[in-house]
Amino acid sequence: MASEQSQSNGRAPAPVERQYTYDAWMRSVGIPVYTGFYIADTREIELAYWPLRGCQAAFIQLAGQEGVSEALVTEIAPGASTPPLKLATDEIVYVLKGRGVTAVWGCDGQRRTFEWHPRSMFVLPRHTYREFHNMQGDQPVRLLHYNYLPLGMSVVNDPDFFFNNPYDQAAEHFLRDTEFYSQARIQRQEGSNFWGYRLALWSGNFFPDMGAWDKVEANTGRGAGGGTIMIKFPGSEMSCHMSMFPARTYKKAHRHGPGRVIVIPGGEGYSVMWQEGQERVVIPWHEGSLLVPPNRWFHQHFNLGAAPARYLAFHPPMQFHGYAEKVEDRARDQIEYPDEDPWVRQYFESELAKRGLTSLMPERAYQDRDFEWKPSLTTGS
Length: 381
Ligand SMILES: [Fe+2]
Known about the structure:
alpha+beta; globular; 2 domains; 7 helices; Jelly Rolls; nine-stranded mixed beta sheet; eight-stranded mixed beta sheet; binds fe (ii) ion
């Protein structure tokens, strides 16, 4: 009755606090939290010791990640190891630099161990313990972790539930597979159709080198003659994709939902991001750079290098994908080359000119919306 009374007196109701449980917890940890639109080099940012993970670490929460996905950079000192950590959610790990070994085990106590090196990617299933070991005595290791903890803590708003949970039934598909991290388990599913793309879907728990992976398929709808690999992690809703596109070309602008974290395994270029009708943000990148396209912001990727460039995008939960990844939404969520602001082409050509290079974009691509790109990076799969 009190609230009804205050409203009838013309006073506004108290505002609903919009603070995610995850954000309050993240800020309470006491390590750096990086915000903004991009990280120039994840291999160089300052970290601080986090006892829970037993190593140096920093959170990355760029615009568009809030409440959806966690990105965390950790560093393991030369020759050092992290203590066992059990996490209740699936987590993807990408190796930013260094070489090492991970041991993973569940309630059966059987340790699955595997080695990794720069640009390796693997998944750590929910309810498993994991330890990381730096195999090099003279250089630190840096890892990028990606998970859905922000969303998880909105559902169960107790961080201990995720880090100190006595439930010990690790994911069933992990427990039954002693060769869980065998590279040979990567499988190509014929005829799969991922969010409207007719691309092969690869399934695996360990990918040895995303900087060398060349089994990509033509993704002509997004332009530039590029190729893409779609990856789904077995027994998990987590997924990612990596796109490669040729030197001195650029992709079409597009937009979609929030929470997608992009890290660069190789190449040199920049991305442009903007909210419809608003100012553009230009993001230079190279290996180790990280960016997040904010929710429904257009973004577009440009290769300024002499070699193909690649970007690896970790996907948010499917609920957040938006619709722009589907070909049928092209008109609303993708800008074809003939329709783009002339600035896009001018800026690209001026950036190339600074390097003594010229664009390899075919003139016809700017005139014909249905211009068919000849795939140039597909090496088969
Ligand atoms: Fe995108």
